């Protein structure tokens, strides 16, 4: 059974942490799953967010998982998150997409929805 985790909650939300916890459990059990960051969920890919040393950093936790981390390009750009290619295309001076995350179109979400056995939105 393949699972798609659609993460739409901001990284400050407990739901975003629940999504990570499920992803970590699925990964540890070697279950087939994919993730897709959409709406406010894309904020986890902002490399310019700072966290105090005594707080867990959700971005770093996702990066440590070592899986593919697709992020909706439109939702990311609307929230000030971009990679070098889109920064140049849209005449932005800087890029801030965190390492390991990848900007993709909604077609990838459509494909993932079609291919999964179960979809869980956080």
TrEMBL record:
SUPFAM superfamilies, per the entry: DsrEFH-like
One of the GO BP terms on file: tRNA wobble position uridine thiolation
Top-level taxon of origin: Bacteria
A GO molecular-function descriptor: sulfur carrier activity
Location(s) in or outside the cell: Cytoplasm
Record keywords: Cytoplasm, Transferase
Keyword Hydrolase: no
GO terms for cellular component: sulfurtransferase complex
Chief location category: cytoplasm
NCBIfam families the record matches: PRK00207.1 (NF001237), sulf_tusD_dsrE (TIGR03012)
Family (UniProt): Belongs to the DsrE/TusD family.
Protein name: Sulfur relay protein TusD/DsrE
Species this chain originates from: Acinetobacter haemolyticus CIP 64.3 = MTCC 9819
């Amino acid at each position: 059974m393949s699972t798609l985790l659609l993460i739409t909650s901001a990284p400050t939300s407990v739901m975003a942490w629940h999504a990570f916890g499920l992803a970590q459990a699925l990964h540890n059990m070697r279950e087939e799953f994919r993730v897709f960051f959409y709406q406010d969920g894309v904020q986890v890919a902002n490399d310019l967010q700072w966290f105090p040393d005594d707080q867990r950093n959700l971005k770093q936790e996702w990066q440590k998982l070592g899986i593919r981390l697709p992020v909706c390009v439109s939702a990311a750009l609307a929230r000030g998150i971009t990679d070098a290619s889109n920064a140049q295309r849209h005449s932005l001076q800087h890029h801030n997409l965190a390492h390991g995350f990848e900007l993709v179109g909604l077609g990838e979400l459509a494909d993932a929805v079609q291919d999964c056995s179960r979809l869980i939105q956080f």
